[in-house]
Design brief:
heterodimer, A: mainly beta, seven-stranded mixed β-sheet, four-stranded antiparallel β-sheet, globular, B: mainly beta, 54% strand
């Protein structure tokens, strides 16, 4: 089954304790992205990757890191989480340059609910 | 900078009726794409419908259709014959042709009354 998986789905942690949220897709997509969703703000892009070893900042990258060593994986790293990073996080992927606009639908993971105390 | 505005935080409609959700956007680009995504209580983001800006014909997917007015920068979603399963948050999103970045509206919560 074609899908984007994220782990963990729920996480409660404390300020300053490094954490990683994993994201993996099995569709051979080139493009991957991380978003955070906050009430009243919609989704905001944190980082995106057009292909392996290529990452770029989105609108709200502060406090986050990513890496893209393999095509299928795009982990989100919070080196020193703070309470303002409490949010719902989504990973998404799409064909990117390999597809045209018709095929460039972004597929979303199930979301990770993060609470930083 | 591109922005997307959904002016209706919440809408309600009687089951089997028709409802229209509004979305406006601001851009100086000529080529772009517009999407409506649905987020049910399960939180999963589900693509409802998409529209290429260079196409004048409005997109349709079964009970879902859009009214795309490029000059007015308006992209409304019409849901016909509303069903209980349509209850969800609906997000309008704009994608630039150049880098696939999605810019999102704040969402509209749709309530279906039985």
């Amino acid at each position: 089954e074609a899908q984007v998986t994220q782990n963990p789905r729920y996480l409660i942690t404390v300020t300053g304790k490094k954490l990683t949220v994993t994201c993996s897709q099995n569709m051979n997509h080139e493009y991957m992205s991380w978003y955070r969703q906050d009430p009243g703000l919609g989704l905001r892009q944190i980082y995106y990757s057009m292909n392996v070893e290529v990452t770029d900042k989105g609108d709200v990258p502060e406090g986050y890191k990513v890496s893209r060593k393999e095509k299928r994986n795009f982990p989100l790293i919070l080196e020193s989480p703070s309470p303002n990073q409490t949010s719902l996080y989504f990973c998404a992927s799409s064909l990117g340059l390999a597809g045209g606009p018709i095929l460039n639908e972004q597929f979303f993971g199930p979301g990770t609910r993060l609470t930083v105390l | 900078a591109q922005t997307v505005t959904q002016s209706q935080p919440e809408m309600s409609v009687q089951e089997a009726e028709t409802v229209t959700l509004s979305c406006t956007y601001d851009t100086s680009e000529s080529d772009y794409y517009l999407f409506w995504y649905k987020q049910p209580p399960s939180r999963q983001m589900i693509l409802v419908i998409r529209q290429e800006a260079y196409k004048q014909q409005n997109a349709t997917e079964n009970r879902f259709s859009v009214n795309f007015q490029k000059a007015a920068k308006s992209f409304s979603l019409k849901i016909s014959d509303s069903q209980l399963g349509d209850a969800a948050m609906y997000f309008c999103a704009y994608e630039m042709d150049s880098n696939y970045q999605l810019i999102w509206g704040a969402g509209t919560k749709l309530i279906i009354k039985p």
